[in-house]
UniProtKB/TrEMBL annotation:
Its cofactor is heme b. The chain crosses the membrane at residues 12-33, 53-70, 91-110, 146-167. Belongs to the cytochrome b561 family. InterPro entries: Cyt_b561_bac/Ni-Hgenase (IPR011577), Cytochrome_b561_oxidase (IPR052168), Di-haem_cyt_TM (IPR016174). It comes from the Bacteria. It holds the Pfam family Ni_hydr_CYTB. This is Cytochrome b. Its main location: membrane. It comes from Massilia aerilata. Keywords: Cell membrane, Electron transport, Heme, Iron, Membrane, Metal-binding, Transmembrane, Transmembrane helix, Transport.
Amino acid sequence: MSKPTRDHYTRTAIALHWLIALLLLGQFAFGLMLDDIPRGTPDRGLYVNLHKSSGIVIGLLILLRIAWRLKHTPPPLPAGMPAWQRTAARLSHVALYLCMLALPLSGYLASNFSRHGIKFFNIVRLPPWGPDDKTLYAFFNGTHHVAALLLAGFVGLHVLAVAKHMLIDRDGLLWRMWPRRSGRGIHPHPELPVESR
């Protein structure tokens, strides 16, 4: 099992971070593509169920990521970072996690207040456990769309913050979440310690 060092996340945290980031990006594109598929057609049902199924898998990975984060203290932020930036970083991470939880959860709940339910990867039918209720479906589906927009906004802020730290502050913040080759740490900033193995 990998252990966190003073300046680096664990290998598991890094793998989950980038895997979830790529999957969410693909899921966003997939969700936008669904708008182009006419309602009431067989193709729409096929692709909607793929979207729902991949959302469930991503949701489980997000839960795993949160569980790992709770049990493994992340490396500290750069020593020279102002207090307000530290607070902003913590709050933005909380907001990211809340949006990442709300997105698959709201989609799952919406599916269970629709008569269609979920056909997991178009193979296993998961019948809805809730009634076919258009009001509840609309509420959770609307929540799903709002959560997607909020998550996109917070991800954008996250990327801008990382770019600021790498290009302006030059404190090597990104490298805490970047994979390293065995035996050689990536430490482009002279003040960052080199890990000993």
